[in-house]
Specification:
The protein has 6 helices and 7 strands; from the N terminus they run αβββαβαβαβαβα. The protein is an alpha/beta fold. The chain has a 5-stranded parallel beta sheet.
Length: about 220
């Protein structure tokens, strides 16, 4: 009986460590799962409420020609503009080393070719990731007395973009593109939700961006 009690006492702390580790693991799974669900829920939202501006998040461009990902976003922004959701469109994004054009400039040219007047497009040629882009847009719009935006990106990018934009001082909601490589297959959708779940958790934890070169088109 004494030996059994000693063994029990010896195993007690180890059992508590195991329980704590298991509890931490389960809590982590709940947080990750809940965030993934929220990413999915916001991805399904199409809010066409009136705003001061439509903001198109940049993506890759090739010598002034938008990639398929970027083109899908620009087409959605043009659709919103035609529906009079906002009187102006903001394109945003800088350029990589060796590029002749910024993402913002190539997006502006694309929209002008669709018939959007030059004075209805603001090109914010700054930003190499989502956080830099939304902060640059917020600064530019607030300086012009604009305070509300509808954000256009890929569906899975919506929640993180909206979170960052609101943190930057703008009222923001989302109307993402429903076309393009980001939504073609279930695999691309699952990849987008997975990536954005951890990118959002990282941002909420550190307030730094977690954008990496995960596809050539992005």
């Amino acid at each position: 009986m004494t030996a059994t009690s000693a063994t029990g006492r010896g195993g007690g702390p180890l059992r508590w460590v195991r329980r704590l580790l298991l509890g931490a693991l389960l809590m982590g799974l709940v947080v990750v799962g809940g965030t993934a669900l929220h990413v999915w829920q916001v991805a399904r939202i199409d809010d066409y409420s009136r705003a001061d501006a439509i903001v198109v998040l940049g993506a890759a461009q090739y010598d002034g020609t938008p990639s398929s990902v970027f083109e899908a976003r620009l087409d959605q922004a043009y659709k919103l503009y035609r529906k009079q959701v906002a009187p102006m469109i903001v394109t945003v994004g800088g350029k990589r080393v060796g590029d002749n054009y910024t993402e913002a400039a190539s997006g502006k040219t694309y929209l002008e070719n669709q018939g959007v007047p030059d004075d209805r497009i603001l090109a914010v040629e700054t930003g190499s990731d989502t956080l830099q882009s939304v902060e640059a847009v917020s600064k530019a719009l607030l300086a012009r007395g604009k305070s509300s935006v509808v954000l256009v990106s890929d569906p899975w990018h919506s929640l993180r973009t909206r979170t960052m934009t609101r943190d930057a001082g703008l009222a923001a909601w989302t109307a993402p593109t429903r076309t393009g490589p980001a939504v073609y297959t279930r695999e691309s959708q699952a990849h987008g939700i997975f990536r954005e779940t951890f990118a959002l958790l990282w941002y909420q934890l550190t307030h730094f961006s977690a954008d990496f070169k995960y596809t050539a088109d992005q």
